[in-house]
Specification:
Elements (H helix, E strand, L loop, with lengths): L8 E2 L3 E2 L21 H24 L3 E2 L2 E2 L7 E4 L2 E4 L1
Antiparallel strand pairs: 1-2, 3-4, 5-6
Length: 87
């Protein structure tokens, strides 16, 4: 395994560009890269990583109303007469 930020320098070809979606180095001549299992796994990993970063950032945000900070809750429920809808 190598670190995702590392580049592999191939003799005669140099450093191949990284795919903007999965982060793997891929020759521009490769057709069907997006259909490989490795592409799908790396793309999903990259999306999950970004979601985790976004969630952590969101949790650090403070929400205030009229100068008072609102409490953070795990589940928010809309109160509709006769119904309870969890979001």
């Amino acid at each position: 395994m190598r670190h995702p930020l590392d580049f592999v320098d191939i003799a005669g070809e140099g450093c191949l560009p990284k795919c903007e979606h999965c982060g793997n180095q891929v020759s521009l001549l490769v057709i069907g890269h997006q259909n490989t299992k490795n592409y799908q796994e790396e793309f999903e990993r990259k999306v999950q990583h970004q979601v985790a970063i976004d969630a952590a950032f969101t949790l650090k945000q403070k929400v205030t109303v009229y100068g008072e900070e609102l409490e953070k809750v795990e589940v928010f429920k809309y109160l509709i007469p006769g119904h309870v809808v969890s979001v």
